[in-house]
């Protein structure tokens, strides 16, 4: 199990995650980040708020960036024709 | 350790009893430490004791057969658990556990039932408290349906603040996420909003309430009604 931290970056503002969560693999951590972003997006859309170009960054215990999930990319994946 | 004189009894329900009734029941109460994580009831298991908290905070957690969990209600020195004992049911329906370190008075199930049958004052207070708790659960269901995460978090922090001494509450984001049934980043983001408004300060493993009136204003109608009903239910009982 590895502990990953999920911080949100919005322009110059970073909302840090001091607790983190443990996952068996980076794929699981990534999937978790996408689910979390969907939940945040859903709440904002419901409230009629703008979806800015935010990212959820997954960092390891050394603070190194492992992967970043773009809020806009997550929304795009849900757009149909 | 047995119960103290009623004047220094911290549990509101026991403090509310007429002195003679309290005097009768007190010998059946044992003060015990209830550290965070202590289970006071387990779903489907027999109820051996009821607990009247003197300090600390606990919650009722409901779990589906597939393992999805959410908090249904919280309690502190304002109540007793499990409230099912009031009905004479000796099996706990939900998981009941301590979420912040505290102390409480423990009474055996049989003694509790005995006083329910023989002491009218005791049974009146216990029934009222069960109703007050049901009101809280109903408003939590309402809040989960109509309020956004920021408002629900504000409501929940106010409810915790009502039940602890001081302005610092030892809560992790992970725990709040279980309580509000949202993912942890939603908690972190909402705490950031409340902190940005100057209502709270969020540090690792602890939340400091900085401006309670402003937090109440922010929570709007998400907070207040169950607290009002509690006061009404506990007024003019004797």
TrEMBL record, chain A:
InterPro entries: DUF6894 (IPR054189). Residues 3-71 form the DUF6894 domain. This is DUF6894 domain-containing protein.
UniProtKB/TrEMBL annotation, chain B:
This is cAMP-binding domain of CRP or a regulatory subunit of cAMP-dependent protein kinases. It holds the Pfam family HTH_Crp_2. Residues 151-218 form the HTH crp-type domain. The keyword Transcription applies. Coiled coil: none annotated. GO terms for biological process: regulation of DNA-templated transcription. Keywords: DNA-binding, Kinase, Transcription, Transcription regulation, Transferase. The lineage of its organism: Bacteria, Pseudomonadati, Pseudomonadota, Alphaproteobacteria, Hyphomicrobiales. Gene3D superfamilies: Jelly Rolls, Winged helix-like DNA-binding domain superfamily/Winged helix DNA-binding domain. It comes from the Bacteria. SUPFAM superfamilies: cAMP-binding domain-like, Winged helix' DNA-binding domain. It comes from Xaviernesmea oryzae. InterPro entries: cNMP-bd_dom_sf, HTH_CRP, RmlC-like_jellyroll, WH-like_DNA-bd_sf, WH_DNA-bd_sf. GO terms for molecular function: DNA binding; kinase activity.
